[in-house]
Amino acid sequence: MRKITNLKMIFLNIFKALVVYLFWLRTNSSQQIIASLFSIDQQDVSRLCSQVRNCLTKDFVPLYMGANQMTRERWLDHNSVLVKSLLFSDINSG
């Protein structure tokens, strides 16, 4: 039973960290305001945001984002006429 309680606390801590981080990104509020809203210290907001950012950079981004996540064929399929015109149009024309 103690293991379940520990796992629940770990999950709640991760969930709280993610909520604080996403709230910070979404609202662009200062860490002091977020600390007041969540009843935690500003240093805790800073630490939580840093931890979430580090985890995303280390564990999520390499697996799910970036140029290596799609095959060449899929990149070509997504290269529409509109994208070509936006990216490769002559700035001086028109």
Model description:
It is a single chain. With 94 residues, the protein is mainly alpha-helical. It has one domain (2-88). Helices cover 76% and strands 0% of the residues. It has helices at residues 2-27, 31-38, 42-64, 72-77, 81-88. The longest helix is centred in the N-terminal third of the chain and has 26 residues, at 2-27. It starts with a helix and ends in a 6-residue tail after the last helix.
Briefly, what is this?
This protein has one domain (2-88).
Characterize the main sheet: none
Please give the number of β-strands.
Answer: 0
- Radius of gyration, Cα only, in angstroms? 21 Å
Mean of residue pLDDT values? 85
Share in β-strands: under 5%
The total domain count is 1
Helix content: over 70%
The sequence of SSEs as H and E is: HHHHH
Give the count of helical stretches. Answer: 5
Would you identify the regions where 5 or more consecutive residues have pLDDT less than 50? Answer: none
Shape: elongated
Structural class by helix and strand composition: mainly alpha
Gap between N and C termini = 71 Å
Keywords:
94 residues; mainly alpha
Task: Give the helix/strand layout.
Layout: H1 2-27, H2 31-38, H3 42-64, H4 72-77, H5 81-88
Helix pairs in contact: 1-3, 2-3
